[in-house]
Design a protein that fits this description.
By secondary structure, the protein is α+β, with helices and mostly antiparallel strands. The protein contains three helices and four strands. The protein folds into two domains: 45 residues, no CATH class; 35 residues, no CATH class. Strand 1 and strand 2 form a beta hairpin. The structure holds zinc ion. The site of zinc ion has 9 residues, from loops.
């Protein structure tokens, strides 16, 4: 018996995070045009807000704290 380790391409939809492999009759197909689950054409385009989600928590937190400090008046008014 001969065993081989094979590598397959796994695609992840940037919209619904669905993961799938694109193979037909045991052969790899070219890059899918649509997500296998949500059927979106732009499945490989990262959503705009995802860029900010990739930032380290510390950076986001510092930005938020700085924003709150600079706009303290607004938050104080909302608290009333
Ligand atoms: Zn999808």
């Amino acid at each position: 018996m001969v065993t081989n380790t094979i590598t397959v391409l796994e695609y992840t939809c940037e919209k619904c995070r669905y993961k799938w492999i694109s193979r037909v009759n045991g052969k790899d197909r070219s890059k899918p045009t649509r997500c296998a689950k949500c059927k979106r054409w732009d499945w490989d385009k990262k959503a705009e807000k995802a860029k900010y989600m990739d930032l380290p928590t510390e950076v986001v937190q510092n930005f938020a704290e700085d924003f709150i400090r600079k706009n303290k008046g607004i938050f104080d008014a909302l608290a009333d």
